[in-house]
Design brief:
- By secondary structure, the protein is an alpha+beta fold.
- The protein has a single domain, classed as 2,3-Dihydroxybiphenyl 1,2-Dioxygenase, domain 1 (Roll), CATH 3.10.180.10.
- About 20% of the residues lie in helices and about 30% in strands.
- The protein contains five helices and 17 strands.
- An eight-stranded mixed sheet has the order 3-4-5-2-8-11-10-9, with helices on one face.
- A hairpin with a 5-residue loop joins strand 4 and strand 5.
- The chain is globular, with a radius of gyration of 19 Å.
- The two termini are about 25 Å apart.
Length: about 270
């Protein structure tokens, strides 16, 4: 799975950009059957952010009528957002959510208040009656990615100290990180345990190949980000990518986090 939409910025929304790219794996292996039981670093879920609450109501109504219950995971109110959870046939976790207004989020300095409580489905439908699902709205984005990792402290050092994201919240066994006073763009958890395998990087089975972050082009900032990685012995792999607008992006590069999860950086 190649998540090619930005997780940190919603820049150039007028451009058509894929939220998600799916690559077929080797059909002659049993990895799909093993996916649900093998303990490995990688994707916990990717999160699709809908623009308005009415969109979430329409999506939930659509899921109730059409989703095979085998793919349903649950629903939750996180105080900053309302979420629906499911997984696809390859056990890739998916969250579909809408944010409350940032003015409704509760902050204590640089920490945001988040909880996991039941979603008020009755209120969702009362406030948004008869909404019809016609597909993802044009301004839908990938709001965040949530990852299985083996060590929270190592992840915090990487995503906070090196990557430069704020550590915005902590749950039992999970840390949350974000830029620009958002609740979280990246989450990490050790819910599979601390002895899990590194992420698989050979594309031989379902899962996350990489996620992509799009940032404004600023040579000084790019060089500083690269320097932070290199100074701590993290290889920076320079790549010339072709963007969705068919333009070369020579400043693109990718790195791997402490658990071997690949992160691709693009710059506008």
């Amino acid at each position: 799975m190649d998540n090619t939409n930005n997780t940190l910025n919603s820049v150039n929304k007028e451009k058509v950009s894929p939220l998600l790219v799916l690559n077929e794996t080797d059909k002659n292996n049993d990895n799909i059957k093993l996916k649900s039981i093998k303990k490995e670093s990688g994707l916990y879920h990717f999160a699709i952010l809908l623009p308005e609450r009415k969109d979430l109501a329409a999506f939930l109504s659509h899921m109730q009528k059409n989703l095979d219950p085998a793919f349903y995971e649950g629903m939750a109110d996180h105080a900053v957002s309302e979420s629906i959870y499911l997984h696809d046939p390859d056990y890739n976790g998916i969250e579909v959510y809408r944010d409350r207004l940032p003015s409704q989020w509760k902050w204590n300095r640089n920490k945001v208040y988040m909880v996991t409580e039941p979603l008020d489905v009755k209120d969702l439908f009362i406030q948004n009656p008869n909404e019809k699902w016609t597909g993802m709205p044009s301004d839908t984005t990938i709001g965040h990615v949530h990852l299985h990792v083996s060590n929270l402290n190592k992840s915090r050092k990487f995503y906070h100290n090196i990557f430069g994201l704020y550590h915005t919240a902590s749950f039992p066994g999970a840390y949350f990180f974000a830029a620009d006073h958002y609740h979280h763009h990246v989450a990490t958890n050790i819910w599979l345990g601390t002895n899990i395998l590194p992420a698989n990087d050979n594309n031989s089975k379902p899962g996350l190949d990489h996620y992509a972050v799009r940032l404004p082009y600023d040579k000084k900032e790019i060089d500083e980000l690269k320097r932070r990685f290199v100074d701590l012995g993290i290889p920076v792999n320079e790549t010339t990518m072709i963007s969705e607008m068919q333009q070369e992006q020579p400043s693109s590069f990718h790195v791997y986090d402490p658990d071997g999860i690949k992160i691709q950086f693009f710059f506008n």
